[in-house]
Design goal:
The chain is of the alpha/beta class. 31% of the residues lie in helices and 16% in strands. It has an eight-stranded parallel β-barrel with strand order 3-4-5-10-11-12-13-14. A two-stranded antiparallel ribbon has the order 1-2. Strands 6-9 form a two-stranded parallel ribbon.
């Protein structure tokens, strides 16, 4: 019987176990230069016993930033700064993928600075507010991307992927979940376009597919993963055809030979769709399962019964940097403390896992 503690070959990259550290926003980068710091290197190195670390969301372009103090991969200085992180993880025998996250409309001019304005598939403002540094701010309507700008954005993902490899990452994960730009193109509530990038299922999956193709062409499909979250309403996302659009998306990316598909379940009711996508996708299947509270040791059976190849843990990894060892020993576990959202104790005991 396969267990979560067994090694696995991830499209040519050997992982020591099948326990992944899920991507979680940290907001610890230098505020002006958007570069990771020595604290970032220490944080990820502490968790290098994960089979795979997937980093916090990293903006591929300046306008892709969604929150204060998040890092980028679009400047030479950022590439150099990330090298200290990847070196620290590799020195401890770990493997680390950079999650490329374009926030799209989930941003604010005060976060972006430099006269930039959030962009999206359509000029539809999300409901709610976000923390913009000085305080909470209402979301604004994004500027609708032109067809030319969409192509430039796709190339921005590819360039950031090349930068990630230059910075020493083992690969990248495209963030197509949780209401950010790729997800915004998939969802009818945020994508009101009538051109080739909107309307039909085929058109709404086009952006995700083209980003995946561009990144795979840039660094190799064996270094490329995609994260999705079917039926997730986070960040004011409204999907009207979840059971149709995600099988279509997976069918379209299947020929690319991506390293993995990472599914995040917002609610237990999507398990049937998860299992269908698992059957449909021939590559490695990573699952962040729907649970009440932080994913715990009981989820390990999802690897044993074949529901997933790799299990992604979030909050429990923050409070327990040596989580694989604790899972194998059946505890004890530190309890995640949501008292601190941005930053907090570098050991993770007071961090809150933003999505």
């Amino acid at each position: 019987m396969t267990t979560a503690f067994d090694p696995i070959d991830l499209a040519g990259t050997r992982l020591a176990n099948r326990i992944a550290m899920a991507p979680m926003t940290r907001s610890r980068a230098d505020a002006e230069r958007r570069v990771p710091t020595q604290l970032t290197a220490e944080y990820y190195a502490q968790r290098a016993s994960a089979g795979l670390i997937i980093t916090e969301g990293i903006q591929p372009t300046a306008v892709g930033q969604g929150y204060p103090n998040t890092p980028g991969l679009h400047s030479a200085e950022q590439i150099t700064a990330w090298r200290q992180v990847t070196d620290a993880v590799h020195e401890r025998g770990g493997r680390i993928f950079a999650q490329l996250m374009h926030a799209g409309r989930i941003s604010h001019p005060e976060v972006l600075g430099d006269g930039l304005h959030p962009v999206g598939p359509s000029a539809v403002a999300p409901g709610g507010q976000l923390f913009a540094g000085p305080g909470m701010k209402d979301f604004v309507a994004p500027r609708e991307l032109s067809a030319e700008e969409i192509r430039e954005t796709i190339e921005g993902f590819a360039t950031a992927a090349r930068n990630a490899v230059e910075a020493g990452f083992d690969g990248v994960e495209i963030h197509g979940a949780n209401g950010y730009l790729v997800h915004q193109f998939l969802a009818t509530g945020s994508n009101r376009r009538t051109d080739e990038w909107g309307g039909s299922v085929e058109n709404r999956i086009r952006f995700a597919v083209e980003v995946a193709k561009a990144v795979a062409d840039a660094i190799g499909p064996e270094r490329t993963g995609l994260r999705i979250s079917p039926a997730n309403t986070y960040n004011d996302i409204a999907e009207t055809d979840t059971d149709e659009i995600y099988p279509a998306l997976v069918a379209a990316i299947e020929p690319l030979g991506l390293a993995y598909l990472h599914v995040t379940e917002p609610v237990a009711e999507v398990r049937e769709l998860t299992l269908a996508l698992r059957k449909q996708f021939s590559g490695t299947f990573v699952l962040n399962p729907a649970t009440e509270g932080p994913t715990g040791p009981e989820a390990l059976t999802l690897v044993e019964d074949g529901t997933a190849d790799i299990l992604a843990y979030g909050a429990l990894f923050l409070a327990n940097p040596d989580l694989p060892a604790r899972l194998r020993a059946e505890g004890p576990y530190n309890t995640p403390d949501p008292a601190s959202f941005f930053g907090g104790d570098h050991r993770g005991y007071t961090d809150y896992p933003a999505l």
